[in-house]
């Protein structure tokens, strides 16, 4: 994408048309459904195994047609093809963006060669090594230094090197190997490592240090803490003696990184390291070697099904015409809601307890990607970008924050996600509990769309004085996503769906969704502040008055 091609989207005819429609068109969902018996079927789409019902969004034919014009004007398809082909669309870092290459099947045609790198070959070489390693750990052939099989895999990573693995582990936990569990240490808050390692047996623990750069303060600090914990624990029980540290680390530590030289400097044998490449962004890396903990605990078969799910969604995104391309349509509707209807946030509400970390995962994917205020040619954007994503699983959220969505003053578009078949068949007497659960899922989107009029409230004999408080305006936009079951493949499809939605929105806004410069300043300042916190008077004096007084408060109140 050359810079000269970039047009500020807000100056396009399609944008102007959408502005007019936002002024004039007033989609009323009650009326829209009453007038058009086919509304649900014409706005429901399949993408791989996902059924996506967009009909309860505030769109009509005119809005959709203008949104599709917007996608054409901004070259969504061309940029999509450029991304899949390995063009350097991450302009601020001059990198390709090729997370989609991580899920290309062996032998995919034509082969993907970028800058002379045979990407398919490299991806599958690493995958094969990960699978071979995972098989060894799972079979018990790989043991700790005292010969005992591994029971706990501790993944140490943060951001993209944590959120994806945790979310997927939580989602697919019933599929784990019966001897193996996973734990995740991410925070530099010492509580995290202390509590996660505290009750583990070092003899049966394998640590995966996961860091794309292998320089992230949290991860490297926690990795050192874990190494000390391991070696001290083994020494205390007489399991290792003088000169056996390296052997113990080799049996209990593996690493995942793009910086294999740094892995070696840390003291992890490169034989026990799995690489990936700078064209995989951290928040797009759960399907790279960053998923090693998953391949070990859930198994290579599950991991390859997971990858096949991503691929199925990639194929849909690549081949479906814009009019029925689900990531495109969802991305466009998000732009409509946030740029034209004034939505400030976007809720994602999975009706599946196993997806309880999915909203947190999506927060990094969406907000780190699209929280930008300059376009990829350096000019400032002229309208809002980057939706604020948040959410909790249903039905818990219903008893907490749904009130605001139903009757508050803000527009909160919501994605509802549910599965036809539950992970567990549970009955309460004759009642299938999953049906009760899904009844809530269906009821919520219905109530949000159609509300309850004052007359309907009155008809229930409610006292006139409280009729307004009991009226529901409705017309709150929702998307319903369903699939037969939360399988590894379906989870991969869901993640890829949101990756591509983010891409579509980023392309329309003209921003680089693949850098994250905003994270850098805080990281640097934290390092710079260390001497002041440790008591260096000159460093304390050099701070602004607020930071200085906070540091002084800390120094006066720290109990040791
Ligand atoms: O994997 P690492 O290099 O340790 O990076 C971990 C995370 O930290 C960074 O600050 C970025 O904001 C994230 O995108 C990244 O996923």
Automatic annotation (TrEMBL):
Keywords: Cytoplasm, Gluconeogenesis, Glycolysis, Isomerase
One record GO biological process: glycolytic process
Molecular function as annotated in GO: carbohydrate derivative binding; glucose-6-phosphate isomerase activity; monosaccharide binding
GO annotation, cellular component aspect: cytosol
HAMAP family for the chain: G6P_isomerase
Tagged with keyword Nucleotide-binding: no
Keyword ATP-binding assigned: no
PROSITE patterns in UniProt: P_GLUCOSE_ISOMERASE_1, P_GLUCOSE_ISOMERASE_2, P_GLUCOSE_ISOMERASE_3
Catalytic activity line of the entry: alpha-D-glucose 6-phosphate = beta-D-fructose 6-phosphate
Pfam families the record matches: PGI (PF00342)
Name of encoding gene: pgi
Family indicated by similarity: Belongs to the GPI family.
InterPro entries from the UniProt entry: G6P_Isomerase (IPR001672), G6P_Isomerase_C (IPR023096), Phosphoglucose_isomerase_CS (IPR018189), SIS_dom_sf (IPR046348), SIS_PGI_1 (IPR035476), SIS_PGI_2 (IPR035482)
Protein name per UniProt: Glucose-6-phosphate isomerase
Entry annotation: catalytic residues: 368 (proton donor), 399, 523
Record function comment: Catalyzes the reversible isomerization of glucose-6-phosphate to fructose-6-phosphate.
EC number: 5.3.1.9
Pathway: Carbohydrate biosynthesis; gluconeogenesis; Carbohydrate degradation; glycolysis; D-glyceraldehyde 3-phosphate and glycerone phosphate from D-glucose: step 2/4
Compartment(s) where it occurs, according to its Swiss-Prot or TrEMBL record: Cytoplasm
